[in-house]
Amino acid sequence: MNLKVAVARCSSYEKGAVEKAIKKVISLSDIKDLPERVLFKPNMLSARTPEEGVTTHPAVMETAITLCNSPQKVIGDSPANVEKPIDLYWEKCGYKDVSEKTGVPLVKFNSSFMLNLSIDGKQIEVPVTEYLNDFNVFNIAKLKTHGLTLITAALKNLYGLIPGFHKSVLHSRFISPFEFSQFLVSYYAAIKKYLFFNLMDAVISMEGGGPSAGKLKKTGYIIGGSDAVAVDMVCCYLLGIKPSDVPYLKIYDDLYGLPELDIKGDDLVPVKSFLVPGIRKNRLLSSSVLKPFLKFLAKYFRAIPIIDPAICKKCYACEKVCPVKAISHDLKFNRKKCINCLCCFEVCPHKAIRVKKSFIARIFT
């Protein structure tokens, strides 16, 4: 059976435009039974304003919440920087205002239960918010590029159901893009039974140095569907890339096969010249012809975080989020400890961290 994905044009975050687009997506998705209890999960990567385009836009959140008639609703997410008060995130991202307008409470992921995953035949346990015991997830993601997974969309957004600092710790266990993508695929296989619907904020997306320091580009769509993999495939088509270019979609295809799609709604017009760093590298790494040379090239492939002292505000978000304690309090990197997970780059609210690439990395990303 083909998986349905609904697509609606949306030219701005003006209330009428967003409402029209989301109504169309929901109508075309043929949602039959609403869950009694719904957890609305945005992308709340960092305490940034809606205008910065790092997080799910509050207009999309408010409209989705208003149109969902479930009797019990909550809004929740858990950013990696647990040292920063989550109330600051709610206010800065605009979700406190959404909560006040809709009457839907904001919740913290303070308690968790263990989810069992199977990765390459090995069993591991991952903590996820206890709200999954009672609520179905309405996943409201933001379309952006990502240094580790190429893009962050519906599937990657579910990573936020893992409470706080545990996300950073997992980066220390699954270091490479392939290992982390393997984890994401196994995680999705275990978490998808709690998922109700995926809605993609692709009105304004982030290209280049995403997920927090890239450039904003108008992409002009709201996309939705019950399956996160299917929604992410449509996002790839919108950005003008192949699903096989994205590591976790390639792994999903190898394990389960990518689904056939039934795309409903407006014509999907690929965005011109959307910058997605890393595509050439991923195509290189999947090339059977070049396979014998990959190990040789790998030792010359480097992408390391660098702090710009002229921009740095000494908020210490980078130090606090580092899973291997590779950043000292005077904001110096211990390169022997650093695993180049780029968590520091993701959470920096001031764009004070850039990624320095080796010559080989610059060629292929």
SSE diagram, text form:
Layout: E1 3-9, H1 15-28, E2 37-41, H2 58-67, E3 72-76, H3 86-93, H4 95-102, E4 106-107, E5 112-119, E6 122-129, E7 136-146, E8 150-152, H5 154-157, H6 166-173, H7 177-191, E9 195-207, E10 215-225, H8 228-239, H9 247-256, E11 261-265, H10 279-285, H11 291-298, E12 303-307, H12 317-321, H13 343-347, E13 353-357, H14 359-364
Parallel strand pairs: 1-11, 2-3, 2-7, 3-4, 7-9
Antiparallel strand pairs: 1-10, 5-6, 7-8, 9-10, 12-13
Summarize the structure in words.
- This protein has 365 residues and is an alpha/beta fold.
- It folds into two domains: 3-265, LarA, N-terminal domain (Rossmann fold); 279-364, Alpha-Beta Plaits (2-Layer Sandwich).
- The protein is built from 14 helices and 13 strands.
- The strands form three sheets. Strands 1, 2, 3, 4, 7, 8, 9, 10 and 11 form a nine-stranded mixed β-sheet that branches. A two-stranded antiparallel ribbon has the order 5-6. It has a two-stranded antiparallel sheet with strand order 12-13.
- Helix 1 packs across helix 2.
- The model has no long low-confidence stretch (mean pLDDT 91).
